[in-house]
Amino acid sequence: MKSKREEFLEILMKYQGILHKVNLVYFKNQTEREDNFQEMVYQMWKSFPQLQKRKSIGSWIYAVAINTSLSGLKKNTRINYQENLPEYPGISDAYREMEINEDTQLLMEAIHNLNEIDRSILLLYLEEKSYDEIAQIIGITNSNVGVRINRAKETLKKHLKPLYHGK
Q1: CATH fold of 100-167, please?
Q2: pLDDT single digits (tens) 4-24
Q3: Residues 116 and 26 sit within 8 Å (Cβ to Cβ)
Q4: CATH 1.10.1740 domain range(s) in the chain
């Protein structure tokens, strides 16, 4: 029988990509992403006992990751780091390994211009989560999810259109 720690580490290894995607959506700076990654893992560990009551591990991880990131953004607006922290062994570099081409970089910049909730919704939408799952994770109604997705798409189109108009 697996220990609680072994179960947690197994889930973390399987789903760490979610944490890296959420980090890319919310944090531009590598140091902030590393700090937030550690905080997300810590928050997941703290709430791990409640996981058995959940239907979907992925939804739980998205909820913890998004809520932790939003809290981190609020904290970072109050704290201004002056120096880079050293590299920490053990933090996965999966987000560094993701190939980010020019188009993806432009899309990420456009997404960073959205408000935090719309970033979360768009991330979940791009991950092909259903409106029901998105509503449950974010804590809004299904119809509000649809409205926000459409508005976010329009905002992204407006932001990206001038960039592609000349191509």
Answers
A1: Arc Repressor Mutant, subunit A (1.10.10)
A2: 888 899 889 999 999 999 998
A3: yes
A4: 1-98
